[in-house]
Design brief:
Structural class: mainly alpha
Order of helices and strands: HHHH
Strand content: under 5%
Largest sheet: none
Organism: Gossypium lobatum
Keywords: Pyridoxal phosphate
Number of strands: 0
Family: Belongs to the serine/threonine dehydratase family.
Number of helices: 4
Radius of gyration: 16 Å
Distance between the termini: 44 Å
Shape: elongated
Protein name: Tryptophan synthase beta chain-like PALP domain-containing protein
InterPro entries: TrpB-like_PALP (IPR001926), TrpB-like_PALP_sf (IPR036052)
Helix content: 55-70%
């Protein structure tokens, strides 16, 4: 059985596709941060958020966006 990295490498070589990391790409993290902005627009007094963690991209994006919206968070 191949690891996901090996599988991804094979697909990239066969298709010429680009690999975009879900947790190690600033553009992806910024995009995921829009979740936080939408929440804060709908509930500006929210002081706690629970965010699922896998690779950390979603949590990073949510935290960065929330902090830029409200530095007290």
């Amino acid at each position: 059985m191949q690891s996901r990295e090996e599988t991804a490498t094979n697909v990239l070589q066969e298709t010429g596709a680009a690999l975009i990391h879900a947790y190690d790409d600033g553009r992806i993290i910024s995009g995921q941060g829009t979740v936080s902005l939408e929440l804060l627009e709908q509930a500006p007094h929210m002081d706690t958020k629970r965010v699922p963690i896998n690779g950390g991209g979603l949590k990073s994006g949510v935290a960065l966006a929330a902090k830029s919206f409200n530095p007290a968070i």
